[in-house]
Design a protein that fits this description.
The chain has 474 residues and is α+β, with helices and mostly antiparallel strands. It folds into 2 domains: 2-95 and 171-353, Beta-lactamase; 363-470. 45% of the residues lie in helices and 13% in strands. The chain has helices at residues 2-16, 24-37, 80-93, 103-106, 122-126, 146-152, 170-184, 188-200, 248-259, 273-279, 340-353, 363-387, 389-394, 400-408, 411-417, 419-426, 434-440, 442-470; strands at residues 42-49, 52-60, 74-75, 206-207, 220-224, 227-231, 244-246, 294-297, 303-310, 315-321, 326-332. Strands 2-1-11-10-9-8 form a 6-stranded antiparallel beta sheet, sandwiched between helices. A 3-stranded antiparallel beta sheet has the order 3-7-4. Helix 2 (24-37) crosses helix 11 (340-353), helix 3 (80-93) crosses helix 10 (273-279) and helix 15 crosses helix 18. The chain is globular, with a radius of gyration of 26 Å. Residues 27-343 form the Beta-lactamase-related domain. Keywords: Hydrolase, Membrane, Signal, Transmembrane, Transmembrane helix. GO terms for molecular function: beta-lactamase activity.
Length: 474
């Protein structure tokens, strides 16, 4: 008995007092080293241990030029899923629903075209095993509210029987957020404010519907040729799946609650320890995905709960290390292509575990430079092709092989016209607009946009030269 009591006291001491080697200065050193090696304009970071805050801070500037502080509201993107999962779990804790109830029992408006939709349970929305998929769901065109997001599911087919396959799909959490509204009887944003943000002292946090609701502090950048360019976020709907805005100060309280059985730094509780544990536990079918959290291991083999978040102009990352009591959250104002938030988060995990941290690098800078060089080469080739069109035509006979050679010049135009569909295949069949492709691969799209008219100009001048060489029809 005495041994177990001493062990419990030792564990409590370990979880509430950060070690001397991981303090605010050590956190700052990791973040500033990363920023000095990259072109990350602004980032906010929270590191906690047990019920103690090790560091909350902002670094750099927002897209509008204001300093980033620990209170700057930034987008957490898909990190929002853990908030939505907790909101649903709170209703289960209250006895308002059960996680294994069919969704339609509480939300009749959830009516996919596929009859198997009637079998989808609340838990399957939250652990991404509902059968809904980016490959089969209707696009979220024109969606502006959670009610409309659920209505958009009516045209959806299921990619698998409910509960049989894991498939990451944002609309699962949009449906779940609407479920919170209907069962809880208040707008989703009000539920989060009343049941999550206020009890934890997260006064600077909220959830929004679309990119139009983002405040100036939450707008971000693209990186082009290593330079950060401030741009607005492309149109999208994200409440429930990616709409939460928060700050380093507020996310510290959220992390503490995850490691403290649902109780925040000031004593406010958002759930019982059993409810928090349920959100951290995957089902047999969901693999490593719990309810809004991925489960796994750190580089040292310690248990890890984490989730990333990507917008086109910003990223976020959160991690909870249950064995040591650490929590880490990062929000960066650069887009998903670079993953700066997760890269910093992984370096901070290495810091608290005493592991060596790799230097930061930007592989896309090399890619961008190669693409730029290729674009300049294409421009030179276009000029040469137009100038030498007559000489080219003089060496060719009109026939099938000449037509094939000319048709090759149409390939850039074909790729440009179908680019959204091609990239969509790389993103699990998701609908991807041309504008979104431009945000994901700006240098490639720029080079393609220059190449296309150039190749068409070469094709046109060569055809004209062939026609002139043939002379007037007899």
């Amino acid at each position: 008995m005495l041994t177990s009591t001493l062990s419990a006291l030792l564990l409590a001491t370990t979880l509430t007092a950060p070690p001397a080697t991981v303090d605010a200065d050590a956190v700052d050193a990791v973040v500033e080293a990363y920023r000095s090696q990259t072109t990350l304009p602004g980032v906010a970071v929270a590191v906690t241990r047990g019920t103690a805050v090790v560091r909350t801070a902002g670094y750099g500037r927002t897209a509008g030029g204001a300093p980033v502080s620990e209170h700057t509201a930034m987008a957490v993107a898909s990190v929002s899923k853990s908030f939505t999962a907790l909101a649903v779990a709170q209703l289960a804790q209250d006895g308002r629903l059960r996680l294994d109830d069919p969704v339609q029992a509480h939300l009749p408006e959830f009516a996919p075209a596929d009859p198997r939709g009637a079998e989808v349970t609340v838990r399957q929305l939250l652990d991404q095993t509902s059968g809904l998929s980016d490959r089969t769901a209707a696009p979220e065109v024109g969606v502006r509210t959670l009610r409309e997001a659920v209505a958009a599911v009516r045209g959806a087919e299921l990619a698998a029987d409910p509960g049989t396959r894991w498939d990451y799909h944002n609309q699962n959490f949009q449906v779940a957020a609407r479920l919170v509204e209907v069962v809880g009887g208040s707008p989703f944003r009000d539920h989060l404010r009343r049941r999550v943000f206020e009890p934890l002292g997260m006064g600077g946090s909220e959830t929004v519907d679309t990119e139009r609701d983002l405040p100036p502090s939450a707008r971000g950048h693209l990186k082009v040729l290593g330079a950060a360019v401030a741009l607005p976020e492309p149109p999208a709907f994200g409440n429930g799946s990616g709409g939460v805005l928060s700050s380093a100060h507020d996310l510290a309280a959220w992390l503490i609650a995850q490691n403290n059985g649902g109780r925040g730094p000031t004593g406010g509780s958002v759930a019982t320890p059993e409810t928090i544990a349920a959100t951290h536990t995957p089902s047999a079918r969901s693999g490593s995905y719990a309810l809004g959290w991925f489960t796994g291991a750190t580089g040292s083999g310690a248990p890890l709960l984490d989730h990333g978040g990507d917008l086109f102009t910003s990223t976020a990352y959160q991690a909870v290390l249950p064995a040591s009591g650490y929590g880490i959250a990062v929000m960066a104002n650069t887009g998903s292509r670079h993953g700066d938030a997760q890269a910093i988060g992984e370096r901070l995990i290495a810091l608290v575990e005493g592991r060596e941290r790799a230097p930061a690098e930007d592989p896309y800078l090399v890619v961008d430079l190669v693409l730029l060089g290729a674009g300049l080469g294409v421009c030179a080739g276009v000029v040469r092709g137009v100038v030498r069109a007559r000489r080219w035509a003089a060496k060719r006979r009109v026939g099938p092989w000449t037509a094939v050679r000319l048709s090759v010049l149409l390939l850039p135009a074909l790729l440009l016209a179908t680019l959204g569909g091609v990239v969509g295949l790389l993103y699990r069949g998701r609908e991807v607009s041309w504008l979104q492709v431009a945000y994901l691969y700006p240098t490639f799209v720029l080079v393609l946009a220059v190449t296309t008219p150039g190749c068409l100009a070469v094709a046109a001048t060569r055809v004209a030269a062939l026609v002139r060489r043939q002379g007037p029809a007899r």
